[in-house]
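User: My collaborator sent over this chain with a note saying "see what the structure looks like." That's all I know about it. Can you take a look?
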Amino acid sequence: MNLNKSLIDSDGVTFRRQMIENLKIIEDTFNKVFGYKDLSTQERKELSEFKNALEKEIRAIVMPEMSPLEVTEEVSKSKIDLTGVKHETLSQRIDADINNIIKKDKYSNLVVTQNGTLVYDYSKLSQTIKQVRNIYCIGDSVARGLHAKKNYGQYLSEKLNIPVNNFAVSGATFSTASNNNIYKQANQIQNADLVIIQGTDDDWLYGNGVKIGKDKTDISTFYGAFYQIIKLIRLQNKGVKIICMTATRQLPV
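Assistant: Without extra context I'll predict from the sequence alone. Here is the result:
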């Protein structure tokens, strides 16, 4: 919020006008926050109560019958947030209170992405993810992160502060019809807590297309290779958690 922090206290009329302008900015900010569809009912209630209390404080400050000393005291009090911490500016106090209200609700971990999208970070809600000590990624160029600064395994590794091992190779198929296959990658995984499997695209694009198949033991087909990859990972990694990525959408297919 871009509040006016250079208030003129020598002129009561100007001071009051500046405070009213700040109040309008605060009002607009709250209206924007209330517009977020993902806010929980509890958050909306607490934000509404906080907004009403804040309005009372500011309106009390701008009442013309108050003495300069009373105004100074009220301004000072208005910088104290709901946890009792005093901030340098009213803007900082409001931001702190909003953040504290959001943090109180364990189901509300709001994150603003680089393009301005408001999303929830559900990682803090998962008890399973907190037990993960390492990550393994297998797949093709998507898992490898071709043409990207980071692949999704690296992002997750940084988020959870745990190591990641990425065996993915561009062009890899699930099927062993190709020597460059994900079954070989899976065989390298040992003592994993979390394995992320991605693929399918290159099975469609390999030659005239790998046969889907019906026999779960035939690793030369897509179905058989996929089944045996899961089985192999579970066999070699006790209690492992497995995430299977859906195929990416590509024009040739």
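A starting point for your reply to your collaborator: The longest strand covers residues 135-138.
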